[in-house]
Design goal:
The protein has 120 residues and is mainly β. It contains no helices and eleven strands. Strands 2, 4, 5, 6, 9, 10 and 11 form a seven-stranded mixed beta sheet that branches. Strands 1-3-8-7 form a four-stranded antiparallel beta sheet, with no helix packed on it.
Length: 120
Amino acid sequence: VQLVESGGGLVQPGGSLRLSCVASGFTFDNYDAIWVRQAPGKGPEWVSCITWDYGYTWFSDSVKGRFTISRDNAKKILYLQMNNVKPEDTALYFCARVPAGTGWVAADYWGQGAQVTVSS
């Protein structure tokens, strides 16, 4: 099982960035998928979730209306589109797989993380 994030970088406030997470080694569309972030000196924060079947989505209040989560089950890629980013979005972003129907704390495989820095 492997999850590899990409697309991180430096972006100005108000800008956009898209993170990708390529999955391999398992049946991607059997699992829900999440994004979690961790800012320096802080604990992990759940950002968003998408279900494996109908693509239902949820977002934390801190990113709702600005971020979009999507997935391409055929290509086995998870995305996080980040719009109107703010300095407080600066963090290491992780993707993870979650057994269907469980919560994010049940995530069992994680990527290595993609750094997002929002600064002018």
